[in-house]
Amino acid sequence: MSLYTDKVMDHFENPRNVGVIEDADAVGEVGNPMCGDIMKMYLKIDNDVITDIKFKTFGCGSAIATSSMATELIKGKTLDEALELTNKAVVDALEGLPARKIHCSVLAEDAIKVALIDYYTKNGRELPESLVGFEPHEEE
Ligand code: FES
């Protein structure tokens, strides 16, 4: 029996929203200190709504599957809604990940937050409270 749920396998084998947005309104890049893997997220934002999102990763299968699901969950959502996305919600949407792969799911959440900080900062806007002092996870 596979360690991975059908949903994880589906998003790993057919990841949604892979790629680069050349004229992105926000970009977030983070590295995973546990394994050295890298995640980059590109967002198009219109009127505080995420109209498009793409990701590129130099990461494992779980990083690919969780990023794919995370992009699906926040595409078309407002920035405030995107801020509420947690890696746990992404893992739940995938119907679970093996415990030692949970740290991979943090990459997507952190990359989205870093991209949103990029967006607010570039546009001279105050950071929402939940992003003030935000640092990408040091460990899972
Ligand atoms: Fe590095 Fe999964 S092992 S992100």
Classify the fold: give the CATH topology: Sufe protein. Chain: A
Mean pLDDT: 94
| Helical segment count | 5
Q: Report Rg.
A: 14 Å
Helix content: 25-40%
Largest beta sheet: strand ordering: 1-2-3
Indicate the CATH class.
Alpha Beta
Cofactors and ligands: FE2/S2 (inorganic) cluster
Low-confidence stretches: none
Number of folding domains? 1
The CATH architecture would be Alpha-Beta Complex
Report on this structure.
This protein has 140 residues and is an alpha+beta fold. The chain has one domain: Sufe protein. Chain: A. Helix content is 39%, strand content 18%. The chain has 5 helices and 3 strands; from the N terminus they run αβββαααα. The chain has helices at residues 6-13, 61-74, 79-83, 87-93, 102-122; strands spanning 26-31, 38-46, 49-58. It has a 3-stranded antiparallel beta sheet. A hairpin with a 2-residue loop joins strand 2 (38-46) and strand 3 (49-58). The longest helix is centred in the C-terminal third of the chain and has 21 residues, at 102-122. The chain starts with 5 loop residues before the first helix and ends in an 18-residue tail after the last helix. The mean pLDDT is 94. The chain binds FE2/S2 (inorganic) cluster. FE2/S2 (inorganic) cluster (FES) binds next to helix 2 and helix 5.
